[in-house]
Amino acid sequence: MVSLKRSNNRSRNDCDGHLFLRRESKDTQCTEEPLLTVSSLGDVEEDSISFSSSSSLRDDEKVIQVELDTTVHSGAANSSASRGNTDLERPSLVQFSTVEIRSYRIVLGDNPSVTSGVPVTLDWLYDECMVCDVSDYEDSRPARRDRAQMMLPAGYRARLVMDTGSSRKEIQQRQKEVNIQRNQRRRTLELEHLDRLEEVMKRTWKILSGKKKREKKFIQQATSFAAVQANYNQTDPNSDSRCIYLENDLVVTSYVPLSRRVPSNLASSSSSSSPTNDDAIPTDPEALFEMEGWKNIADDLHQFPLFAVATPEGIPVAYQVTLNEEQTYNIPFFFCSVEEALQELDNAKQINRGSEHAEDMKIVPFPLGTAFRLWCTDQAVIVPSKASITQAGAPPGTNPIGQTVPMWACLEISEEMENGKPRLPIFMDLEDANAAVMEAVGADGGKLDDFEVVCLSLSGAIEQLATVPEDTPSFHFIPPSSSLKYIEEYQS
Predict the structure, then answer these.
(1) Where is this region: Disordered (predicted)?
(2) CB atoms < 10 A from the CB of 180, how many?
(3) Closest by alpha carbon to 398, among 409, 407, 408, 389?
(4) What is the pLDDT of residues 448-482, one digit of tens each?
(5) Which range among 122-131, 266-275, 332-341 shows the weakest confidence by mean pLDDT?
(6) Is residue 440 within 8 Å of residue 411, measured between CB atoms?
(7) So where are the chain's domains?
(8) Checking DSSP bridges between strand 92-108 and strand 63-74, what pairing results, if any?
(9) Would you say the pTM of this structure is higher than 0.90?
(10) Tally of helices (H runs) and strands (E runs) in the chain
């Protein structure tokens, strides 16, 4: 806690009263350090005071903080003036005289905002290096650094705190504490998605059931790929089916139960940052899948294709993933983007070239409903597209493995079912959502600004829809148009 107070040790006629910086340390002891030297505050005219900016320098070991010592010179008539309000009208002059440079050590910090590594901060203690004239300082100081130059890489921060006496054990312990706090922040942001979805559903119900509801009709796209489902045998996650992964030149059938949820582990180890928070796994997955709400959306989810790299027989390939050189997982990856699944297929063929199975590998569609159940029981990873997580706010270049799968919806449009009832479409591709909005505006008129497309998380939407009352409006999960096009070409 920092507070400013004025010292009353000198009389008002003295021209150099003091302002002190009050600082509380961790042991609750307070120290007072002179911050500014000024004249009687009653003699200072507000319009005549001006301040120049301070600057800071840093060498390889320490951060140097600059403080300005100021002296206020008032007119000669101030000494004989009364202490009334007329003092404020007298002209005063503020000048900076000297600069005191202090050197602070770099020590372990506790700010969880760092993207990786251990945070650092300034120590309470400092060394007084020098005092110089402010004009000399301004003439000799180097150019101010930009933001990029002020960033400290994780490895450099670790070396700094080790040079000041921190052990590796202390660094690892502090980094663990910071990671816990960072995950708590991500969890808070994730719950905001659920709150938004609940609000979306309430607003949608009012729109669809009110007298002024908008019913927008879209052309129903064929999403059925029942003919393709015969090519793989994992439609039932409770069956004794097993994944297949490539190890050297052999095809080995194997399944390893996971003791921890894979997506969060992969996200924490491979993501460059994350304004994006990983999905929230349901507390009790089996209970979720027994709810009536899940049964209402299961058929829709089973008609939604994801894509997996597969063997020539059409069985999804599982990947051996090793974390921290200790934990190894054998899990399939299901890609939301067919383009990125094809890229992964090329990579798999390149890595396994020479194997008799490599050239015959392919990608196959896999139902989202089954993939979601596998994900909830730590048996799969659902990989969002790189473009979608960037559109949802993740920094460019973020690794999509383990990230939240974003979905998109517009409350002002609805899709008419065969029985004439409306339902809200939820898109996986933002471009498809925007195209639907443009189609609705072109068909029925209205202002484009009135049609807001909101971002939802896949896991939050499914969990929320599976646990809502039966009288809520229907929702329709719409796959990317590129996925549907690939399905049509695949079936033909």
Answers:
(1) 264-283
(2) 10
(3) 389
(4) 777 888 888 888 888 878 776 555 557 788 899 99
(5) 266-275
(6) no
(7) 2-166, 177-491
(8) antiparallel
(9) no
(10) 14, 19
